[in-house]
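General statements about sequence and structure are easier to judge against a single worked case. When preparing material for the folding task, we compiled for one chain both its residues and its C-alpha cells. The amino acid sequence and the C-alpha cells for this protein are reproduced below:
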Amino acid sequence: MSRIANNPIKISKDIECSFRDGVFSAKGKLGEMQTNVNPNYNININDSEIKIIPTNENNKDPNWGTTRAIIANIINGVTNGFTKTLELNGTGYRASVSGKKLKLELGYSHDINFDIPSDIKIECPKQNLIKLTSINKEKLGAAAAKIRSFRKPEPFKGKGIKYIDEYIFRKEGKKK
C-alpha cells in the first residue's frame, strides 16, 4: 500500500485541471502543462483536491506514487514555479546572459556558450550566480545539471559550479 499515492493533492481555485483520454492537463497563472498518465490509473478532480485511483484494485504497482508525484509537480509548477541557483567558485569564473545564450568563463581556453531552452528563464544577478526558473521541474533539473557538468566542483579547493545549497566534501592535500 502506497503512502504517498493515497494522499490527495490540494489545488486552489485559480487552477483549471482536466483529465481526458489518458492526458492530464493543468493551467495556472504561470502557464499550462500536460502529461500522459498510465492507463492503470484514473484521476478524480474535485473542487479543492485531486486523487489518483488505480483502475484495478488488485494492481497497485510502484508507479502509483510516481504518477501522483508527477501530477503534484505539475500543479506546483503552474502555481508557484521552480527555481534552482548555481554558484561559480573559482578565480575568474563568471557567467552572463546575452540573448538566448548563457556565456560561461570557467578557466578553459575558450568560453562556453550554453543555449537556453525555450521554457527556462536564466538570469545572472551577480557574476558568480546563475538563477534558473521554470514551471517544468524535470527540464529545470536537466538544464541545471548540464550547466554544472561543464565544471563540476573539485574536492581540494572547491572550484567549479555547484548548487547554492550543496555541500562539497573537502579533502586534505598532499603532505610532505
